[in-house]
Amino acid sequence: MPQLTLAQAFGRAPKKSGTPEKPKQPSIAPTKQPPTQPAPAQSTGKILFGPNGPHPNFDQFAVHPINYNGVVYPSPQHLFQALKFVAHRMDIAETIRNAATAEIAFDIAHANKAATRADWFSINLEKMEEVLFLKFTQYEQLKQELLATGSDELYQDSATDTFWSVGPDLLGCNEFGKALERVRARLGGAPAPFHPAIPCLVLFLLDYYFVSLNSVQKCAKKPRYGESLYCGTTCLKADISRVPPTCPRCRRRPQIGNLGFCGTTCLSIAAQKR
Question: Where is each NADAR domain found (predicted)?
Answer without folding.
Answer: 63-187
